[in-house]
Amino acid sequence: MILITKLVVVIVALAAGIKVIDCCVVWAARRRLEKLQKLKAPAPSRSPLPDALVVYYSRSGHTALASSYLADQLHADLRAVEAFDYSLGLAGWVNAMADGGLDDAWINPAWMDLAPYDAIYLGTPIWRGCPAPPAWEFVRSNMFPGKKVVLVTTSRGSWKQSAIELLGREIVRRGARSFEHRPLARKRAWFRRSDPDDLRITDLM
What we know:
Blueprint: H1 2-38, E1 52-57, H2 62-74, E2 77-81, H3 90-99, E3 119-127, E4 130-131, H4 133-140, E5 148-155, H5 161-173, E6 178-185
Parallel strand pairs: 1-2, 1-3, 3-5, 5-6
Antiparallel strand pairs: 3-4
InterPro entries: Flavodoxin/NO_synth, Flavoprotein-like_sf
Organism: Stenotrophomonas pavanii
Domain Flavodoxin-like: 52-205
């Protein structure tokens, strides 16, 4: 009986510890996200009929920031894709680390009307050397007939060229007339700048 009681106490303590860690992770992630959002690009002065679309998935906000500035410079439309399995917090982080390298995910929205656009810029973080699963899911859920497709990746390190080429072949197989990869290195300076107007996509390329 005493052993069972001790076991229950240990389990409760472990659960409480995990909850505390998760709260700390969420708090830190939200603070970082708030800093990034302060650097958000101003609303772009777009032409009446933009011919480019910047669509992105971003878990921590870095890819969202880069994509917003890219859309501003291109006078492009900007759309976000969400993936609830990879939300802020310990569980979302664990899922992201475990799923890095996979090519499917539940995203919303999965399909978009790409017909009005000539060029599609797809922004995604790099997880374990590969484009995040939501980027793969978006590609598999859409067709790109005659489109120029540019994959914009954000990461702190390197990426697997084979993974980039595999995604590129899938995009071309779905009708794209061209594919290119533009990697952006994540820098701490992204959210240390005091003046958001000083941040330009050219600084990140």
